[in-house]
## 1
Amino acid sequence: MDVIRAFIAVEMPTAVKQELARAVNELDEQIPQGSVRWVKPELMHLTLVFLGDTAVSKLPSVTAALDEAAQTAAPFTLHLSEMGCFPNRQRPRVIWVGLDGHTQPLLALKRAVDEALVPLGWAAEKRPFQAHLTLGRVKDARQLRNVNWGTKVKELAVPVTAVHLMESQLQRGGPLYTVRHSSTLAG
């Protein structure tokens, strides 16, 4: 059976990716080399749902579900917010930048996507959704004890006009993402 590794995401504008790259560079100057695996700016996106290994035969159903969910949402705008860490700054595993602004339409869109995927065999996420953009994954949290987490990011606009079914191919130099389908918000 042919499968792809897939997720559903919102793409980031170029200016947002450039601002996130600037913030990563500022943080990277404080952090011992090799203690964080940074996300390449061109790969930064807002993940709504991670589908994982998905049968190619299911893709038409997934794209139809995505189109259905997109019909329920009108375009809206988010903006970059504060920097944070999962689970927290004392024990960072993931470094991220939050998204704020029109979060209610985002949560409604996330819920619509989840509900459209349930009949196809995906369970709705149990954890509360926290809109964030992953900057890096921490390899050794002990090396980050003296980091000044005060790095600020500009509150740039993130227009949300479509959601995308993405394919992720894991490669030696990092993942390669390909848009397999786009659904324009039309509600």
## 2
Amino acid sequence: MNTKQTRIRRARKTRAKIAAVKAIRLAIHRTNSHIYAQILSADGGTVMVSASTNDKDMRGELPNGGNVAAAAAVGRRLAEKAKGLGIEKVAFDRAGFKFHGRVKALAEAAREGGLVF
């Protein structure tokens, strides 16, 4: 099994547990250049809020989208948007990525912004 298949297997197990409790999900995806975050409805069919380093307003203020500072900025922006819609409690779906570096920075910034998970 290669690295990508292992990550996808971990992600599938996490998503199955989140779906079983029917929780609103904060899903992330990271690439070498950018990090993306979305808050999805409990049924998984609707994107309620999204933020990424590839957004037009974020590109202007971030010189590099693939570092910890950029991930923290995305987490703060996502928490602001979610609070505007009244979303406070979410389940964190790290998509099989290890909880360190950019993933951890985004999660901590979202928690500081008022999201509970």
